[in-house]
Queue: 2 jobs
Job 1
Amino acid sequence: MASIRSRGARIVDLIIAALAFVAVLICLLPMLHVLARSLSSSEALIRGQVTFWPVGFNIQAYKFVLSDSKYTWSLVWTIILTVIYTLAAMTMTVLAAYPLTYEKLKGRRLINLMILFTMYFNAGMIPMYLLLKDLGLLNKPAVLVIPNVLSVFNMIIMRSFFYTIPTSLRESAEIDGASPVMILTRIYLPLSKPVLATLSLFYAVGRWNGYSDALMFMNDRRYHPIQLLLYNILKSITSIDVATLEGFRMPGLNETIQAATVMFATVPILLVYPWLQKYFIHGATLGAIKE
Amino acid sequence: MATVLTTGRARKAINYIRSYWTLYVMLALPIAFFVIFRYIPMSYILIAFKKYSLFQSIWEMPWADNYGFEYFIRAFQNRDFINAVRNTLMLNALDLLVGFPAPIIFALLLNELVYPRYKRFVQTVTYMPYFLSWIIIAGMAMQVFAPNTGVVNVFLRRMGYQPIPFLNDPTWWVVTYVLLGVWKHLGWNTIIYLAALTGINPELYEAAEIDGANRWQKIRYVTLPGIRPTIITLLILNLGQILSSDFDRPYALMNPLVYDVSNVIATYVYTYGIRGLQFSLTTAVGLFQSVVCVIFLFAANALAKKYGERGVW
């Protein structure tokens, strides 16, 4: 095919490839710049010499970040939180999606309607805040898990995948005397492994990247997830007063520490992304098929 | 006869319960979740029509003045709120104008890429920003666009231009806000279009080739019509969300210098409600926003159906 393409067509092919490469550069260069800053000396940085390669290479900023228990603890805590949240959310998603695939289930339409309605109308931030306050959940670690432990969107994706499993499989198992729970654990879940992986990733990324719930509902700094810590540091680092409050005694290092902090929060995502990429893309197309 | 029927029905009911009760047990937790965390908060909406008091239950609080609509009136007399509505509409409209067509164009570009491995590489790299949080993106933007040390301004200065205050000047902040949205979503949002593109019948391209269509004509008359339903569906969803406001993105990117353009409804509710404890006022604002969003979504859907497109539902 390529051999019979005319010369003009091949030149256009190359132009298109070049345009796509511009997009690649735009995605990568900002990260490269932040990495270069984090590894440069603060003098070179202040003089505006740092672009995409470290100037005055040193790892001071990383030493500072990694020696501060605040950072390491928030990393550990966010991992714990993400694992708990993902497990809880997946359990809830399957528990909601599986029974609703039974067409004979009485009340199924009503439950479906009740769930779908919340996708279009929600009470808003303040009613949620007041409810959590009344329930005594404010500033408790559970507040970072429970209020968003089930996503309607993910539940619908799960359910439509369950629908693709032929009902004849279920019916023959029923004739053999299998209970709904057995059918779920022996047939449905093993057949849905890719979707389970994909939805787990969506929940995990959501929890890992989320900070607004912690900002609104959690005043205890020990339980701040890494994104909120990063936010507080980014906002405070611009004013030295607050910076020292946050524990920075070396103002000269501020700019490189800021860069190192961003890298510290980015690297975990960059490490897992290439390996899990195919599941993410799988999930995006699942969402597309949904409608 | 009648007794036979009822016993038959009773036996059916018993059988039904015996085989399906576990399904209801499974549903118990999710239903409890939706009732407690999605429906009970709706009863708190009543606070929008009442004078909030810490020491009374919702039912005991006195009704607000003006037949309960006092806080809605106050919201619309509040300069900050009007400003927040304006900014929400402005930022969402700009997102729609710039951020909506961008992935369509990029998907068409990817679709024309003839080197399969290179194409996969481009996709892998451009999907990645989607998985970075707005805090991380804000952190990167603060550095890349830093007035003195950021790489963009370093290059501008080397080329003899004045540095640009990307995040500290209101107009530039809006530009940066929109472009960062494109940066985060461009690659990821192509997936849905690329999926739609695989659904186009290859015979259409062959027929077009026989008719002597060039690359551009194939895009214009085969590819674009092929993804048209996807475009319309996504456009409806986006139009329906014109007054909805994200919290994470503006809050991460805002700073006091650009408050006039970065204050959106969600950040307004947070500052006046959770920080400022004006619960009645902010609940009213939230209700206003939710209701308008629902109306917009239905209107956009009806409009699409009127023009012969598939709606969202």
Job 2
Amino acid sequence: MKSVMSGAKNDDEFSPSAPSFYDVLSDRGVRWIAFGAGGIVVFLGLYIIFEIASAASPAIKEYGLRFFVDTRWDVSRQEFGILAEIWGTLYSSLLALLIGGSFGVGIALFLSQGYLPNRLSQIFRLVVEMLAAIPSVVYGLWGIYVVIPALRPVAAWLHEYFGFIPLFSTSLSGPGLAPAVIVLSIMILPTVAAISQDAFAQVPQKVKEAAYGMGATRKQAILKVILPTASSGVMGAIVLGFGRALGETMALAMLIGNVNQVSLSLFAPAKTLASLLASNFPEAGQVELAALMYAALALLFITVVVNAIGAYIMSLSKKQEAI
Amino acid sequence: MNMNASVARLNDSVGDETQRNEAEVAIDAKINSIYYGKFRAVRDSHVPIRKGEITGFIGPSGCGKSTVLRSLNRMNDLIPIFKMDGDVHFMGQDIYAPSIDPVLVRRHIGMVFQQPNPFAMSIYDNVAFGLRINRFKGDMDERVEGALRQAALWDEVKDKLKQSGLALSGGQQQRLCIARAVAPGPTVLLMDEPCSALDPIATRKIENLMHDLKEHYTVAIVTHNMQQAQRVADTTAFFSVDISDGQRCGHLVEMGRTNELFENPREELTRKYIRGEFS
Amino acid sequence: MAGMQNLEQTQVFNLARKPYNRDTLVNYIFTGTLFGVAVIGAIPLFSVLYMLITRGSSRLNWDLFTQLPPAGFMSGGGIGNAIVGTLVMIAIACLFSVPLGVMGGVLTGSLAPKSRTARTVRFIAKVMSGFPSILAGVFVYALLVVGLGTYSALAGGIALAILMLPIILLTSEQAVSMVPQRMKDAAFGMGCTHGQVVTKVVLPTAMPAILTGIMLSIARAAGESAPLLFTALFSNFWIRGLIEPTASLSILIYNFSGMPFPNQIELAWAGSLVLVLIVFAFNVLSRIIGRPRY
């Protein structure tokens, strides 16, 4: 201790020095590496889009916009179109959003509005997180051996007595839209629940107090004040959940039946863009490959647009909070 | 009449006599303890709120005056670890009895908070909120206008009722919250430091407003500002806090007619606080 | 103003609960609905876990980890090569995505958070995090599988890396930007270069949170199957090199799930159990690491 003290006073062996050559080099090095990494990320992101687009270009030239209105996917005649897949993707995702979205928002309310003691709601949050962590193939397997068998008698009954409604116009023979939608809803539920929980947490305490102070019941406070105040965050959650549903692949490839047809029936097999890629890619020839790349590009475009809308809505909710 | 006699008589009037004459008291709170978890926040406070008057709660920070106020309409129920030992009588009923619906209590005892907290809705919808949840069937426009007039806000907002309540200035927002609180016709109005977030001019407007509100409602107001209590309150309750082994426990020290309490307090503690010897 | 003279109000209200009052009733129904929603929402998790444990644990023995997958009508066998394949591809993915992601996060979170470069990087990372995972497979197929002429562990690993990269970058950015400015100021004040501030103060302070992000991204990648489907493909043999088709747990489950043989279906369940355990393990690890130390 003493030597250090005296050293600081008059020992001139040590004094602050200019940064050494090594210091300067490492400083530059860290910057270069960081900027390099950033550059690679940007390049990669753009290159992914470019690569898929250029691989798709033969098909774009060949089929043009007709690709989006043609329901045929005929390898032998080399006629390709993805109308059925777009229909299947949007239809399954919207239905899943209806179920998974409302359950997700409901669970977020249940966990954030004081219905449960703190510890219990933490356990429940863990359940939702585990739901999110289970891999998509495992859901697919579960769908095949649990959901489809459980659904079959329900579907048969609905078809028999309500077959005149287009939704139930076919019977469930195995894989089909309904089991795929159920599993898909489970997969987007945690996304919607997590993001809307954040949105509810951002509702200021003073606003909740105002509602309860007026003598609102919990239901009135939630539906009339808390939900409207958090509405843009909840909307963002739902749109981002939609983006997640659009790109989901494996569970759908295992459960939806992979038949390209446009049908309203919940029990008919269908096909989505992602499941088309999953099932046809490995054995595709040159021409079909280009068509698949075109389909991939369409999927990319749809999801990027949906996610951009979601991000925009979320940014609105952040702005609102700032006021 | 000498001073001491008048003080004694007055203390009687707010203490024992009020109990004899129940019609005079709107809310009679006898609080033995308020706990947050294991922490005893308030002890031994008997606070009768007299009908048709403004009762001010003053005292140093942490003395439990806001806690007591919020226990008068069961707002504290929203805090899971809140527990109260005691009873609060309102309209002849103990509002902490198990059979009582706290939601109904809050519909009769309205509240205005420290921070102006209008909902993210139009001015009109803010005021109509309480009427709608009570399923008011009459002339909504008339009721909204009446409430806004009572809150002395009508002339400022009558041309922009459809605009967001959040677009108003802080003082206007607070008056909007008062309008919202009075619109469904509560009996009592609790105000928790309603001016603490406002500038002096807006504060003055609210204080003037309170004299009019007294015509229609029983008011209890927490304030950290002694001058404000002197200006608006008919009766004042002084709370203090005792600190033992790091625990702070608030309690009522004394309560009396405002001018008496400020001019001739019974307790030494009150005298010191009024002289500004601690805060 | 009628009805507002509340002081003269002589009517005494009854404040007791009215169980058949419309508001109270509707409130109860609402509470019940939310409760039901939560219970129904939790059922799938317990059903999946129940199936995994009852169907998967019957094969949870040494053979499962040491044997190769059985062919058609054969009995026995295991999923050893798939477990190894999954781990190898995760390692490859980390090799590419961790340095890029963390340094990218340092750039956008600490070195130049407001620069145009950082904004571009952040934007691209957000866009990439929304890519459907199968598109990573499509891209790597076009780039590497076509280029190398074969499916490979390398291609599978890089496809996973593309999924992990934006997650790691965005969580690292978050972690790095949480380092208090006063800590950085202290280091600058002592004459540190910007590089030293990053390596000696920012990275060590943010490390637990960065590792949390990495663990979460691994947990996500371990369960992914779509990007491996036509990059790594599958193999019935042990891995011998990085440039050959490689087995993975998720693809094994996918392939075996549709087979008509009970033995394979049992293995698919056992594989799912192992896969879920791996994913959960990394999730738990991320929580343990992420606990603040100071």
